[in-house]
Amino acid sequence: MIAALTQLLVLQLVGEVIARGFNLPIPGPVIGMLLLFLALALRGGPPPDLQSTSQGLLQHLSLLFVPAGTGIILHLHRVADEWLPLLLSLLFSTVLTLALTALVMRLCAQRVVTGE
């Protein structure tokens, strides 16, 4: 478990170093996640210890929303002042996500049917 957590944190650190070193607009943890994906794709999947550690972290994923909820409560006055732009951006991003998901699903279904 310690080795798997170390792997995850090292990849996040490498992503952070890349993001800051090249002054990229992409967050370091996202780059670290892409590096993890590439490493797992090259290996053919996760090793058992990484898989079990990741499953354990995912079981407690809801705890990661506590800081965000605390931040919203802390800045509730800003949310009240800017409710319309927040609402519009949430609605637009939701509709856009649904549309893109449907488009990707349609393209994937066509590929399965045609056998590509």
From TrEMBL:
Keyword Transmembrane helix: yes
Keywords: Cell membrane, Membrane, Transmembrane, Transmembrane helix
Membrane topology classification: Multi-pass membrane protein
Gene Ontology CC, one term: plasma membrane
Compartments, record wording: Cell membrane
Record keyword Glycosyltransferase present: no
Xref: InterPro entries: LrgA/CidA
Xref: Pfam families: LrgA
Transmembrane segments: 29-45, 57-77, 83-104
PANTHER family from the UniProt entry: HOLIN-LIKE PROTEIN CIDA (PTHR33931:SF2), HOLIN-LIKE PROTEIN CIDA-RELATED (PTHR33931)
Entry protein name: CidA/LrgA family protein
